[in-house]
Fold each of these.
Amino acid sequence: MSGSRSSAFLIFVGPALTAIGMFLFVPVIAAFLLSFTDFDIYALGDFSVARVVGLGNYGRLLEDPLFWQAVKNTLYFLLVGGPLSIVVSLGMAVLLHSRLVRLKGLFRFVYFAPVVTTLVAVAVVWRFIYHPRFGLLNYLLSLVGLTPIDWLGDPDWAMPALILLAVWKNFGYNMIIFIAGLQNIPQSLYEAASIDGAGPWQRFRTITLPMLAPTTIFITIITMIGYFQLFAEPYVMTQGGPLNRTLSIVLLMYQEGFRWWNMGYSAAVAFVLFVFILLGTLLQTLLRRRALR
Amino acid sequence: MLLLGPRCGRIWLIPVLLAALLGPSCSRPHGERVVIRFWALGAEGDNVRSLIPEFERRYPDIRVDLQAIPWTAAHEKLLTSYAGKSMPDVFQLGNTWIPEFQVLDAIEDLRPWVATSTVVHEESYFPGIWNVNIIDSALLGIPWYVDTRVLFYRTDLLAQEGYTRPPGSWQEWLEVSRRIRARAEQEGREAYAMLLPTNEWAPLVILGLQNGSGLLKERDTRGDFSGDAFREAFGYYTRFFHEGLAPVGVTQVTNVYQGLAEGFFAMYITGPWNIGEFRRRLPPQMQDRWMTAPLPSPDGAQQGVSLAGGSSLAMARSCEQKDEVWKLIEYLSEPSVQLAFYQITGDLPARVEAWEDSVLRGNVHVRAFYEQLGHVASVPQVPQWEQIAMKVQQYAEVTSQGTTPIGEILAQLDLDVDVILEKRRWLLNER
């Protein structure tokens, strides 16, 4: 390895490394160190009053009922919304891949449009849909004789309402990836199966699903990571209410950090979330290995 | 959730290009005029806009760059602007937020300006409200509008029980509540006397203040909720739930206007914004059947206190055009401007002179607020107050539903509050 080659390497990689270092590694390390201090509003005014508290923030966090409420809410969102989102996007992908459907381009656009729309604009529309008195959804319920529901104001309904919104907003993205996966399945497999007398359901179960396994695993991990970081939906729609029933881990982190300015505590929340996501991803990787064997 | 695909790659160019096109023309459209940046919150932010042209007409060399910030994001935005060294020159500051900005040393002491002012004098303000703006003898804001809580009640339902005037003491208050409840039970209706929503900390805190509790002790470094004064007030508060005088779990009462009109409850402690709401939302035949009254007191001998609320105008320490900013504060404090502001927003004027106008004198529902504003008390002036208030609210909710002994609950509340105040204790005692 000559010296000129390694310097050429540095010239090419250097700018990217500097940017990543400054805007990713430095903040992450700073936040990690911050999580061992009690950096708060007093420290914001005068840095010298920040104290090192060791694992104090983490200890307090594990005893904080609000944190566990946030964990519960986030898991609810993840375990109900995640699978729902994957099933819907797979179903839509299979439909759009079918030869029977006309205007595929149009449908793909329609289903993908919510993904690229900003959530704040979407929230305005969905607030109207969920409005307890004048909302579209309650109007539809009244047509079939059901009593109106205060979707965003009722502690039991607020989270399902957010799940519905999130699934509607995000399934298009996964759908496109599924369509790409479907296009990679050789047509000859389906033809062979048809000759052997397999029906549509059998073809789906024995060809489509197994061939899509790598795609599905990728989507599951990406969806899990994204859904663990639930923030924008409750922030825009409910602010974590009613009765903290839509308070997510990231929203708690935001409130502790920017509302109360307990930066040390807030950084601890961030790292606990990081551990959760890491464990979730490891678990899925393990399951995949076992499935492949 | 952020999903940035490669296709979004060039979208960032649009705002950059727009900024490049508009930038030079935006930053200096008015030649030599001094620009002062003013942040106002919520409805005040939307409505104060119509008062600005008159100010700019009087001072042609000043331009006011007004930004309306929604209340839900205001606190974060103000603190973040401090951290990012981009504070507005002058801003609306909720009274309970003053201690935080005092700790940060972010706002200017306005006493030197008041000393030479011909418009702003301490005597023109309600003393209780003025004093909320003073911490360590520095005057950190000029009251802009005031806010407190009074009793809203159904005159006919109270008269039915022999009360032609509102209850004056805690004992009378409890007595009339019991009678209203007893009548409802007799008639087999589900109806209550009071509405005490457990997602509001104000009523409970007011009862504590009325009974002489300071809420915190030892220079506001520890909770004093187990102290006798607060314990007694808390006991009184819980009786409303345990005797069935107030509905439990009132997040279900989503429409208080309908509730009051239907007689689901007869009394409610709330603020001035509800005068307009009650007029608009109660049916016409209800309009002469509700009234406002100053709050009862523990013994009924003197007037009971309520919260000193509202917003002030504060000047950022970082501001570079303090003289111009002071002119704006003075302008917004003029009695006639205060009155105009009341007429657009319904916010009660901070200036006592403005109350002498017929617009306010002729309003029967506002009178109780004027009387109450002479008897207001402040919550402890510590930066952690809002966090403490959340805890108080949380424990009030537990009490309204459960049967845990009061002493135990308050001891637990004190423990929680002591944790929140740990840093303050350390700063005051050990440094």
Amino acid sequence: MENIRLRFKAVTLFAIAGLVAILGSPSDSRAATTSASATATVVTPMAISKNADLLFGKFVANTGGTVAIATAGTRTASGAVALFSQGSTSNAASFAVTGEGAYTYAITLPANGTVTLASGGNNMAVNSFISNPSGTGTLTAGAQTLLVGGTLTVSSAQAPGDYSGIFSVTVDYN
Amino acid sequence: MKIFISEIFLLALSTIAGCVALLASPSECLAAKASVNASATVVAPVTISTATEMFFEKLSKNSFGSVLILGSSYQDPVRGTASQSSPGAAQDAATFAISSGANPTYSVTFPQNVAISDGSSNDATLNTIAGNSYGAYILSGTHQIISVVGQFKEGTRQGDGNYKGKLNFTVYYN
């Protein structure tokens, strides 16, 4: 009986030693370990919202021409168009662009031939959109104001009336 | 085993689909778009047309001092009363119809020192002034009548005759 107990203890110790040998030492003898950092940055998504509409104001068409709104808001006429100042408000469109830090972003304006102002069955095209900044914007502390102007084409004897339309501006990280 | 392979296959398909979605439409994931209104108002041109010609009618030669005034009463927007003329003679101030699609203020230029002649060797000059007191000339609605009276000044050679001349008035938006 005593022998049996001694054998059981011996087997147990051997088994433990074996487990220790298997579990505890292979890395010490055959493997190599190193560490690496894992990082990720969640970027603030770009957003754009309207501050002000694009207003060409009032004018008399006469035999036609153009009305242009600069990004600074100044209004100029060409051809026979006569600007009308009484009760007239004009300004460039303004957008609030937000995003990440000082990232740059691309600005996409409407292409020529895609924006029309309408009044009943009468139309005027808006082309040559311009912006400030132009092409690429740079955020400052995650924000920037984007100004957009354009040129309105007025035909001869353009019918009097209030004309309106909608256009979109897209911004995207570079 | 078959079930295990199917799960791997579906997982792979969903991963590929996600990548395709990301690669095919990154602008939808990263870009931002905003729309604004664009508007313009075409104002009807202001027009002026003659409603009544200006008549001095008969003036007595011996009354020719420096100035004869037709329409001494500016309160009468249509008919003046010449202070010097043949009894019973009719005179009229000129009247003009002003119209516009809006109700703006406007200005009128009154011709001065317009040469008139009897068609031969006699001449005189004519000045014009406002015959009514619309003052700032504000269209109430879309139509207004203004009157104009004249000052007939004897010329260097004054003789009997029928004197005629043409007066050009200009109206414009302020």
Amino acid sequence: MKITLDEVQHVAQLARLSLSEEQMKRLMDDMNDILSYMDMLNEVDTSGLEPTSHVMDIKNVFREDETRPSLPHEKSLNNAPEQNRDSFVVPRVI
Amino acid sequence: MELYRLTIGRLHSMLKKGEVSSRELTESVLARAGEVEPKVKAFITEMPEIALRMADEADRKIKTGDFGPLCGIPLAIKDVLCMEGVRTTCASKILENFIPPYDATVVSKLKQANAVFVGKANMDEFAMGSSTENSAFGATHNPWDLDRVAGGSSGGSAAAVAADECIGALGTDTGGSIRLPASYCGVVGMKPTYGRVSRYGLVAYGSSLDQIGPIAKCVEDVALLLNVICGYDPLDSTSIDTPVPDYLESLKQDIKGLKVGLPKEYFIEGMDTEVESAIRNAIETLRSLGAEIREVSLPATKYAVAAYYIVAPAEASSNLARYDGVKYGYRNRDGKTLMDMYKQTRTEGFGPEVLRRIMLGTYALSAGYYDAYYKKASQIRTLMKNEFQEAFEKVDVLATPVCPTPAFKIGERMDDPLQMYLTDVFTISTNMAGIPGLSVPCGFNGAGLPIGLQVLGGHFQEEKMLRVAYQFEQAAGISQKKPSL
């Protein structure tokens, strides 16, 4: 399975990236190299095998729904590139 | 006597007897860093003023007579762990000005133990890499040969320990990022069982694989660091609530009759001959200490790199979605729309390897490819986990090389991502199965580059692994050697 330049562009859009033509070509080559190495996974018969997304044997972890101290408003805004003391500021959306 | 050369164990007893103060020790370590840091480049942020303040506080604590083994000990902390009020960059432009408003759990545990922080250590950007070359702040150099890489991604932590710019350090390991640099820099490093150490405040890369662990000059120091950082934390719902043993105690027993497995898939063609002979010698040492050596087989090892480089980038692509120029970090201000702002911020803020993994991961999770890549890799992960489980029914620990070669030249693998990924061929399976692994120095090649022996154990079998590493270290006497800088 070879990935095309169009697909690279589509994936970049999904990942919220704006890549130059040159970056996309480079990434297409790298990804094709890497993905063709991954083709070896098709040698393995995995039918009937459950996928593992978490290795330890823990299920849902519950806790009491109690209020605890949290970061003060001001402190949570401190690292924002732009803020108005009340909220994060972003380019106009509507 | 140069204080900066000593171990935590030795320094603790000197502090106890009043032979030295934490301030003297910290000044010695800072002076050493001043001397060698321009060559090694182990740190992103040095913090001498904070270090001296923490040292004075430790000295006050020492005067009360009630203090633990890490009190007053200068440590380096990988720059992926949040420290309140101290810039935490993850070696990325996108976080170059990020000042965390809280401490990671491991950081607050070390503070409670009155450890001294000398700096935030360099790393591959967002812990993605095997060489610490993928840092927006420049590569770390291997103290044993400055033209070579320190290994990655915790290269700054390992190099700082090897160069005596700190007494011990914390790193993180998602696919070998503690063990590989420990091996390349000739120090001891351990990735504990997944869930053994809280990940709260660790900037996430691959959440089902990431684990924090110690890097130090000897096995005993690794045990002392583990004693403090391990344990359940309600702030990390994946941390496991099982009692933490005293790891120092586990070093004392011998290894007579202990079964050590050699997985045949870890002794492959193409392995550097000097690495292979160092590992074979190490295994003979274990045999002479009374261990029973057995061959085992882990056939899925062959697929580890391929499966890992689907799972880890998939998790990364999701975790790194948070860097959007809104809440923290870098923002590109040219974008007129919100979407432009997101895209330009992310494209400029991330380095090439991070972009590559975000793209790979997004692709592997995208509609139409999920089953072929992510699901397939997760099924193979099950296979890997099962094979380890079966192996640990037959043997107590496994002994393997950490890496097929010693440290490579800076720049050598930067143009070939796949070649770089294959560096992790012997360390990745550990993370996929969530088991613990450590690296202990076992020799040098002809050019004087360190070689590491990897010891793996079943879930929560850290004590056995430390015992094997400690007994080996005592018998081999390798950790005495130091790089000449």
